[in-house]
Automatic annotation (TrEMBL):
<protein>
    <recommendedName>
        <fullName>DUF1440 domain-containing protein</fullName>
    </recommendedName>
</protein>
<keyword id="KW-0472">Membrane</keyword>
<feature type="transmembrane region" description="Helical">
    <location>
        <begin position="116"/>
        <end position="135"/>
    </location>
</feature>
<feature type="transmembrane region" description="Helical">
    <location>
        <begin position="43"/>
        <end position="64"/>
    </location>
</feature>
<keyword id="KW-0812">Transmembrane</keyword>
<keyword id="KW-1133">Transmembrane helix</keyword>
<feature type="transmembrane region" description="Helical">
    <location>
        <begin position="76"/>
        <end position="96"/>
    </location>
</feature>
<feature type="transmembrane region" description="Helical">
    <location>
        <begin position="12"/>
        <end position="37"/>
    </location>
</feature>
Length: 145
């Protein structure tokens, strides 16, 4: 695996995480994220969210990075990846970590739909940032006259 792609994945995850984190702050969701590490601080929640975002971005680089060849493919793959993490994160893993069961029954509730929107925005930013950062490292075609 190319270290530039790994770096691009982490930075893409952080780019998406910053925007999604601001959305979560506006919705008052960061204390709940902080609860994953035994805190109720919004700042701790934001930092936990950024760590998770960087790790998810790293996963994108490993699993899908080789398929990103343009901004559009980055955006599409990022959107799909964000949707997958909406299912895995707030509907499955996070509730299980907090002692609740999976939340599939409430997937179409207003808070979960806002979470879906945030995950989709996260994915688009992750994928397009990844595309931007890896494009400048891509080999340029040679021009012959």
């Amino acid at each position: 695996m190319n270290t530039n792609n790994l770096r691009a994945g982490v930075l893409g995850g952080l780019a998406g995480g910053l925007v999604f984190g601001m959305m979560m702050a506006l919705m008052g969701m960061l204390p709940m994220i902080a609860g994953l590490v035994g805190s109720s601080s919004a700042l701790v929640g934001f930092l936990v969210h950024l760590v998770i975002s960087a790790l998810i971005g790293l996963g994108f680089a490993v699993v899908l990075g080789g398929r990103v060849h343009s901004y559009s493919s980055g955006a599409v793959l990022g959107t799909l990846y964000g949707a997958l993490w909406w299912v895995l994160g707030p509907l499955l893993l996070m509730p299980l970590m907090m002692g609740m069961g999976p939340q599939f029954a409430s997937a179409l509730s207003s808070p979960n739909l806002m979470s879906l929107l945030g995950h989709l925005i996260f994915g688009v930013l992750l994928g397009t940032t990844f595309a931007a950062l890896t494009a400048r490292n891509a080999p340029r075609p040679s021009v012959t006259s």
